[in-house]
Amino acid sequence: MFRYVILLTIAGIMGSIIAIRKGRSPIWWFILCALFPLLIIVIALLPPMVSKGYTKRCPYCAEIIKEDAIVCKHCGRELPIEMIKVNNKM
Ligand SMILES: [Zn+2]
User: Fold this and answer.
1) In angstroms, what is the span from residue 38 Cα to ligand 1's centroid?
2) pLDDT tens-digit map of 46-79
3) pLDDT tens string 4-27
4) Can you give the pTM of this predicted structure?
5) Domain coordinates of the chain in residue numbers?
6) Residues within 5 Å of ion ligand 1 by Cβ?
7) How far is the CA of 72 from the centre of ligand 1 (A)?
């Protein structure tokens, strides 16, 4: 039983990592993949939110923007420097 829980947790972590790389919600995909490990295949096959490069969410308007963006294309606000650095490491 305990081993099964560990396996489901690993499945959830894998799903959330793939979700982050595709600009999708890591929390939702962690829960979904932990409950249904087969969904890892689904998230792996899903196209990213933006076709080129990885994405992040604008902290001001919550729109999906490109990871390397310094200014949000939706609301035009400049993003905090620490957010740009953190996102570039992933
Ligand atoms: Zn914005």
Assistant:
1) 34
2) 776 654 557 788 889 998 888 888 899 999 999 8
3) 899 999 999 999 999 888 878 899
4) 0.50
5) 1-47, 49-90
6) 58, 60-61, 72, 74-75
7) 5
